[in-house]
Structures
1.
Amino acid sequence: MSLDISYVRSQFPALEDGFAYFDNAGGSLVLRNVAARISEYLLTTSVQTGASYEHSQRATSRLMEARGKIAKLLGAQRAEEIVLGPSTTVLAQSLARAMENSLQPGDEIIVTDFDHESNIGPWRALEKRGIVIKEWSIDRESYEIDLDELDCLMTERTRLVAVTHASNILGTINPIKEIARRVHEHGAEIVVDAVAYAPHRAVNVTDLDVDYYIFSFYKTYGPHFAVMYGKYEKLLELDGLYHYFYGREKVPMKLEPGNANYELAWGSAGIVDYMDALGGETGDRTAIDLAFDRIAAHETLLSERLLAYLRDRNDVTIVGRRDSETHRRVPTISFKVDGRDSAEIVRSTEKDRIGIRFGDFHSRRLIERLGLAEGSGVVRVSMVHYNTSEEVDRLIESLDRALA
């Protein structure tokens, strides 16, 4: 069965205004049930957890339930592997801080030049402690990565590889399972930024065999909140970031200073209920996987519709893969127009009530590596499953006028 787009759009109240939202990689719309859960929590359960009285016990139970649901969404084996925080940027910085005392001068960390800065900057900052930072680069012509180059970068001193699951510029899906296998063969750990991947495809961290995996809910149909998965035994090894009496064994709370945001955790768990509904309401991973299969099929159609238009223009350079192959790209599509400023093109579409974006999207190293910083960076159209073919056609008509 294909995606029920009428049902999907009914779950996102913001769509009722008729605006075409194509800046979803910057932040998706919020589900109706997520907003309702946050409101209901604040109005009925807004007490501190951990006390013995009835209402506190209910708050504690709800936070545990939310962790369990989020663990199911990620394919984690236990709720304690779910660390909650305000954003991917903050969680990556927290992870770096929690790891730094276990690193020695001369230890090596590999970062990329094709990631969002959230998964580069925290690791580069460790250079001040004598950590050697190596850079894995993307090919400027093909926009592809070379796994053999990664193998060459790794040595017996490599402790960590930081890489993105999907580029928020190129839309390319990287082979994380294979990358994790190679990293582990060298005795190192892997941390994955999945912000640009999680809204589009099912995540199974157990199958991927990653050590750490981070993404933001506000780009995955939820509130401004985020999650970091960590293998339980890896989390136990990390330094705590909370009070001194939170021992190493206090996972994941030792990594959530000041406590997790209870209402946002409860609200974010509503994303899981929504995916369950899209996948047949079986209440298990089967429904989540089926939901994302339907999402992927729909998004592939949207991608191909726009990419076909861009491929047919001789004044447009697609930045990334030119095809819409489901397993190789997500519907985040960037391009440059010969002789035109990207900001000018974006602003010309706004009068048609269409929201796209220009710039480097905090992947500045990638944009600079590709030589695309001039002219306001790239134009980016980032679609998700609540977008429609009709909206893509509106965008194409608007781009035709803008580029005429």
Note: The two ends are 40 Å apart (CA to CA).
2.
Amino acid sequence: MIKNTTPLSMPEALEYVKNPEVKSFIKKFTNLNEKKAKELREKLVGLELIKLNDIHISKIIEILPDEKEELSKILPASNLDENETNTILSTIKEFK
């Protein structure tokens, strides 16, 4: 039975994966551990940007974009303004 449908990033999903081979595979594609990913999610949610939803936040955590262009490719339809973009990127830099 499905209890919750909250989108998770790959590092956040590690908490629920029991198979060591799958965990190892996921870790190859992630730059953050589970704890840091959760902290970053909390900070991004705390920004209270209406244009950011849970799916966007999960993608940001997975990719950790460095530049405005990378962020705009992750969130093509969100139309972030300059201030919102800079706020998101500065929050990401705290976790690199």
Note: Residues 40 and 94 are 9 Å apart (CA to CA).
3.
Amino acid sequence: MDLPYIEPYKIKMVEPIYRSTIEQRKEWIKAANYNLFNLKSDQVIIDLLTDSGTGAMSDRQWAEVMLGDESYAGSSSFEKLKTTVQRLTGYEYFIPTHQGRAAENVLFSATVKEGDVIPGNAHFDTTKGHIEFRKARAVDCTIDEAFDTTLIHPFKGNIDIAKLQDTIDAYGVERIPFVLITVTCNSAGGQPVSMANIKAVSELCGSYEIPVIFDSARFAENAYFIKTREEEYTDHSIKQIVHEMFSYGDGMTMSAKKDGLVNIGGFIALRSEEIYRSCITYNIMYEGFVTYGGMSGRDMGALAQGLMESTEYDYLESRIYQVQYLGERLVEMGIPVQQPFGGHAIYIDADRFVPNIPKEEYRAQSLAVELYITSGIRSVEIGTLLADRDPDTGLDRYPRLELVRLTIPRRVYSLSHMEYIAVAIKNVYDTRHEAEHGYQIRWEAPIMRHFTVELEKKG
């Protein structure tokens, strides 16, 4: 008999969970204006809002916390992190920031101007926000297969080369400062990008001398899917795959709170000394001196160790197995989800789950609120609220996918928690026909509204 799978780690510390009642949660979510971001952490039983900074660090990472060098300039922790990033990516120039959106702010301040166009694969919320804040435009060139949640395609995060070519032809090279490849592609359901596609994008961009930049928050998970889904990489290590991935680009931004396995941190890594020199001016203005950039020495040390751990196969296999387990349980129960499953989350297809709620009433958000009320599970809407309004018309943008994301923190929950999540969603699914109305906006911010939006019930 084959031995069952076990996680490649032991638990050294636990954190209590307060198990609230439905009556309490109804009051709490009403007071939060039906915005799950506004809930307090102790009002949540299982928190699947994000995998950003919510993971558990290893004993070796905690050891690095004690070794942190807090020198303002020239910290040895900075040198340790810089060397680690250089070895993994091959990029010579390194700039630390306090998190991923800060890295975007610094890089885009140096490279993006009004009227520019940034093609890519389904830019995520902060990325699109930083682009549109500069009066530039994000153009989605994701393959069409990504928008059919029932279709099994191994690399739904791929960029459609024909769409990319059409974008270059339509806007002109001079308006495209770079092409952005998001690995994995969050807005499409945590879907990976193949090495073959990365090569093809690099080749096309190279012919026009357009730089390729990676949004690399989940680069290690992307490398795992390349190893397990592209036959020629079966015998490659994760670190070898990572190094080759980045060899086809010119730089990267990183929210280290994901595949860096830390609670805070980010960075920019680049080939170009010219862009690096432009970026460090903005980094000093917005983040801090070039050898800390908004991070403490202890956090830089923990990140250096985390990057080494996250690019090990055993860790990634365990991480993705847990996500897959939840996805398989939901499919067994008939729940419509994006398939194949992503690396960091399961995405419920709200259009197929609650089609009876009008799209104008934010059906994905409505589903996420109901899941919280009935079970205490906090998820997040990846749909119309997140898509924001069209900057030209001021009207809601209705994305091709209306999703509820169940984001699994790294090394935090057990398979028992996954089972609780699955049964809770099935209970909501069994009563889905009772839902008639969703929500309307009472107040919203002019950009990235989903973080702070205030809603009220319709009907």
Note: The chain is about 40% helix and 10% strand.
4.
Amino acid sequence: MFVIGNLIEAVARIIDIGLTLYMWVIIIRALISWVNPDPYNPIVQFLYKITEPVLYYVRYYMGRWIPPLRGIGIDISPIIVILIIVFLQSFLVRTLMQMALYFK
């Protein structure tokens, strides 16, 4: 049974690292958007390609409940995504870690 516990713990750690990395990518993209980045820069293109699907999804569904703040130039979708990541780290990763302890 300890093998299953170790496997679940490893998966939880990988998910935690992946969520943390994605959170930092979201933060970096938000910071870069404050300056006028070169859209042809490969790093900027990479950041947009990796974050835009999630941010677009949040903007689309958030727009149904919260009126858009585009008129004042504020995009709160990165904040929403970061809050979702923190929730997943607090709930999903902790639950998997507790399951891993149960199987050890």
Note: The chain has one domain: 2-103.
